[in-house]
Amino acid sequence: FISQAQNELVNAISKTEAGLITTNEEWQQIKPNMDKVAIYHTKLLSLKATMSMLSGRSKQLQERANKLKLMKLNYLSQVDHIRKLEQQKDLTIAARTSLSAPVSPEMSEATVQPLTIEKAVPTSPSPTVAAKKSTPRTASKSKKKPKARQVFLDDDQDTDTSSWIPKKSLSQKDLRVDK
């Protein structure tokens, strides 16, 4: 068994000696490639440093994205909560107005159906819902009269007020051209 191991060792040594470069030409062919080893080594170190820096940055960005997702979920839940509160307020106002006004049987069915439909249809929360406030509509609005415009003239000037004559407004008759 030992002689067999010695024979294998002798064969391995002879193979390595046969594979050794002995001529100068062979060295000249290999030398440019061997000179590039130092350059490749520095590039490898640079790539390792870049990879570690990018992995750290990636972790930071991932944590930031997770925080933003949580903030978005909190915001959407707040919007949904506000929307539900507004919807409850609208329903209570609608219930108050329907109870205070005398209602015929036909009218009560018509008002109950839209309220049940609104409850059945879920709406997705939108950012603009929180900005809008719903105001209850009153049944009758009284029209306000437009206020008359008042003009105050400065009479301190020494101009003749009688020289001013208002312009005549054109009527439909004045605008027509006779043929």
Automatic annotation (TrEMBL):
Residues 117-179 are annotated as: Disordered. This is Uncharacterized protein. It comes from Choanephora cucurbitarum.
